[in-house]
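Kindly go through one protein, given below as sequence and C-alpha cells. The question is how this chain folds according to its C-alpha cells.

***
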Amino acid sequence: MKPLIGISCCVKGFGIFNTPNHAASDSYVRVVLGPVAGVPVLLPAAGEMLAEQMLPRLDGLILTGSRSNVHPDNYQGPSHAEGTPEDTQRDSTTLPLIRAAIAAGLPLLAICRGFQELNVALGGSLDQRIQDLEGRMDHSTPSDQRFPRVRTAKAHSMRLTPGSLLARIAGAETIPVNSLHNQGVRRLAPRLVAEGWAPDGTVEAVRVQDSAGWAYGVQWHPEYDWERDAVSRAIFEEFGTACAAWAAARGHGAKLAQAAE
C-alpha cells in the first residue's frame, strides 16, 4: 500500500456567491502522486480536532503555500496591513497539527505559508511585508503575470549549510529558487535550525532539531518545478522515502496489535 499523505487546505471563496470551500492547489496533489509516490488526502481547515482524529491515519504531512498570511495573534505580532488575506480557520487547524505531527515523529514537509506556520507553531515569529524592510529584497509574487512561468522562474540564489540535506542532494552549497511570499522568519523558533538563506539574509530552509522523524521546511515552492528541476524533485523523493518507511512501520505495528488480540 502507498503511504497516505495529508495535504493542508485553505478556506477560499468560490463561485458567484463566494461560497467558502476547503481547497488545496492541484500542484500538491500531483507531486504526491508523482515523486512522493503516495496517496493524497486533503485535510479541511476543521480546527484542532483534526490532529487527534487524522494523524494516526496518515504517513506524512504537507503544509501548503497560500496567499493568506498567518494571523499575527499567533505570534504576538502587529496587525496586518488593511487588505492582507488571512485564514484563521487554517491557522487553528495547522498550528496544533504541526505540533502533534512533530511530537509523533510523522514525516512533515512545510512549504511557503506552511514554512511560516512551522516557525510560529514552534514558538517563532514573523516579519510582514519583508519587501518594505530596509535592506531586504522583494520576495513577493511578481506583479506581471502575463507570462506563464513568471510564478515559477528562479528569482534568487540561496546559500546552503555545508553538509545539510539540500546541500547533499544538490551537490552544491548554492542553489536558485523561486520566490512568492510576503512574510518571512523574524525570530527563528528554538527547535528550528536554519540551513538556507537568501542573499538578504531571509531564512529559506529549516529542519526541526532533534525531531523523532523527517521534518523540514522550505520558504519557496518546489512543487511548481519538480518535473524539470532535479533539486525540487529530490526534496519530494526524500520526503516520500520517509513516508514510505513510516507507512511500513505503521503497518507492521498494526499487524502486531492484531496478532496480540
